[in-house]
Amino acid sequence: xxxxxxxxxxxxxxxxxxxxxxxxxxxxxxxxxxxxxxxxxxxxxxxxxxxxxxxxxxxxxxxxxxxxx
Length: 69
What we know:
Layout: H1 3-6, E1 8-13, E2 19-22, H2 26-29, H3 34-41, E3 47-52
Antiparallel strand pairs: 1-2, 1-3
């Protein structure tokens, strides 16, 4: 497991431009990579971005309205 990968998040851009944030479980990362998680959980037709957790907004009040720019 890469300590760096624990602090990563996968931002999935949905077809309606909303986003889904995928937070890898540390237990999963003990035996798998981020790329394996993406292949398993991100639909092939959607775009995704790997970011640091610190890049996410801290105010989650309107998280249902988040989009990717």
